[in-house]
Structures
1.
Amino acid sequence: MKLFSRVVLPILLIIYIAIETYAKLNNSPICTSTGCNLAGELLKFNSVYLNYFGALGALFIALFGYLSLKKEAFEKLFFITLYAAIAFESIMIAYQIIANPEPCSFCLGVYGGLLFIALMSQWRYLLYALPAIAALFISMSFLAMTENRSIIKKDGNYLIGSDKCPYCKKSKEYFKEKGIPYKILSIYDTNARFFIKQLDINSIPVLVIKKNDTSIVIKGYKAITSHFNKAIKSANTPETKSTPKGIYNSADEGCSASILQDSGCSESPSVPLR
C-alpha cells in the first residue's frame, strides 16, 4: 500500500505533468479551456516553466516516498514535501478562482492528484491539514484582488464613481440633462479602482470614453462637463476644432478614490490618497 501511495501515484502525477508539458511545447496542449489560457496570463513567466517546477516537485515526492520505504527517517521529508506542494498548489488554485472566471483544469488535475496521494498515504494527516487549507482559501477570498477580465468592452461612456460622491451625482445629473448615455462603474469594483490608480488618478469622478480603438480618460466634474460642452458646441458649429484625444486632467472638484474614505466627501477640493 505504501509503495502504491508514495511511489506509484507520484510517478503517475509526473507522467501526467510530462504529457501536458510535451503537448504544450508542441503548441497542442491537452488543456485548452478558457481557465487554462487565463491562468497562464497570471504568471510572470511562461507557464511551461511551472510545469517543470511541478514535475520536479512530484519527482522529489516520489524519491522521498521510495526512500521512506527503506528508512523511516525519510518519511518526514516525504510528508513535508507533499504538503508543501499542496500548500503551493492551494495558493495557485485559490488565486485563480478569485482572479479568473474559471480555474485551470490542468492545475485542478495536479491539485487533485496531490490530495489523493495525501489521502492514500496517511488520511489522518490530510484531515489535520484540511482546516489550514480551508483557512488559506478563505483568507485569499478576503483580499481585494483584480480580476483577469475587461471592465470596458464596448464603445460608450463609462463613469467611475460612487453614490456617496456629490461630484459623481452632479456628473450623472448633467448626463441626464443632456441626454448623454453612460454606464456607471463603481469605485468599489477592484478592477475599476486598479485601473485609475495605474493612471495615477486619486479622485473621482473619472470618465472613460471608448470609441473604436481609442479611449479618452477625463478626471473631475468640471473637466467632464467642459469636454461635452465643447463637443456639443462643435456639433452646432462645424468650424470649431475638436478637442485632442488623450487623458484630460483637472484639479477641480472631486472625491477621494480611496475606499477607506468611503468615496464620500464634502463640497470641497479632492482629497489625495494617503
2.
Amino acid sequence: MTEDDVSRPSETVLPEHEVRTALLALLAEVGTVTATEAAARLGYSSGLCSFHLRQLARYGRIEEVPVSRGRAKPWRLRGQAPEPAGFGDLARGLEDESYQQWLAQKEQVPEEWRRDEAFSAVVYLTPEEMAAVADIMRRALTRYEDREQRPTIRPEGARPVAVVTRVFPLV
C-alpha cells in the first residue's frame, strides 16, 4: 500500500454528489479542466473524475471543449456558468440522490458509520438573525476545509461526510 492509497479518498464510499459538485465548482473557477487536472486539484483519481465528468455531460451540465490535437479531453460548463439558482437545484438533487443511496446501503458500512445525524428545527428569526445562523454554520465547518484539498492532513479513519444545511424562511 502506498502513501497515495492511504491519503486518497476511497472511491467506494464517496457520495456521488460530492465529486460532481466539486467538479462543477472547479470548472466555474478555472473554466476548462481535464480529468487528470481535476484529479490533481481535487485529490481524487483521474478515473473517478473522468466518470463523473462524463455523467455531468450526459445530463447536459458540461460539454467537451473542441481540441485539434492530442489525447487530452478538456471539459467546460455548458454555455455560460450556471445561475446560482440552477446550481442550487442541481446540488439539492445530488444531495437527495446521495442520501437515498446512503439509506439503501447503510447496512453495508461498518457499524461505527451507521449513524445518521439528520435533524431539523423551526425557529423564529429576523432576516439578520437568519443570516447570522447561516454564517455560524459555515464557520463551524471551516476547520475541516483543508482536508479536502490536502488529504495528508486527514485523521486516520476520516471519510467524506455530507453536511447539508438549508436556512430559509417558511412561507
3.
Amino acid sequence: MKVDLHNHTFRCHHAEGTMEAYIQEAIKEGVEVFGFSDHAPLQWDAEYRMAYEEMDDYEREFHQLREKYAGEIKLILGYEADYLPFKMYSDVFRRKVDYLIGSVHFLGMWGLDNPSYIGEFQQRGIGEVWREYFGAIRDMARCGMYEIVGHMDLIKIFGHFPSKKPDKSVTEALVAIKKAGMAIEINCSGWSKPVGEQYPSRAILESAYDLGVPITFGSDSHSPRHIAKMHETAYALARSIGYQEACYFEDHKMHMVKI
C-alpha cells in the first residue's frame, strides 16, 4: 500500500497547487493513503507557512474534498508544526486533525535549512550543531504532542556532517521517539537537495528498525508533480532494512499497512 503523508499546498506560500490538484495526482500515482500537512502558522517566517486566518478554510476545504473523493482514496489531514521549546503551538494542538508532523527547522532563531544562513554551520561548529539538533528532536518527542518526526536528519541538508558521528544524541532521540509512540518518515525530498539522499540516512533507519520505531512515507511535495516521486526507491530501501509495514494516523491513532 502506498502511503504519502507529507504534502504542502499553495497555502504555505512557497508551494504551488490546490488541494484538489494534489488529490488527483495522488490517485493517478496509485497512492492509497494521502495526507495534507501544510506548515502551521508562526508569528514570523510568514512567507513559508499559512496564516492563522487560513486554518479554518484549509480544514473546511479538506473535509469537502474528502467527501467528494470517498471511495477513490483515503484522505487524512494534518499540519507540519515546528518544534520550538520557547513557543509551543497551543492553537495548532487544539485543531481537530488526524496527525501532526513535528519538525525542527530552527535552532533558536536560526533557520537551519535556509541557504541564506548557511554560514552559521561554520560559526557554531558542525559537531555542536548536530548535537543541538538531535537534542531538539529528542525533546520534541518527549513533549508528547506529535505523531510523526519530519525529515529527522534535516541538519544534513547542505552536506554538513560532523567528523565524528554523534551516535549518542541520535540514539537518545530514537529512544525518545519509540517511548512516545511516534513514527519517523522516510522523506523523499532529500534526493532533490544538496545532500542527495533521503531523510533520514540508512544508518538511522537501521537503528530505528532495531529499536522497533515505526515508519511512514512522505514526498514533502511542494507541487502536485512531486507526489510519489522516488517512492519506489524509498519503499525498496525500507524493505531492504527489514521493514514490512508502514503507518498512517486517523484521529491521532496509528494504523499499520503492509508495504
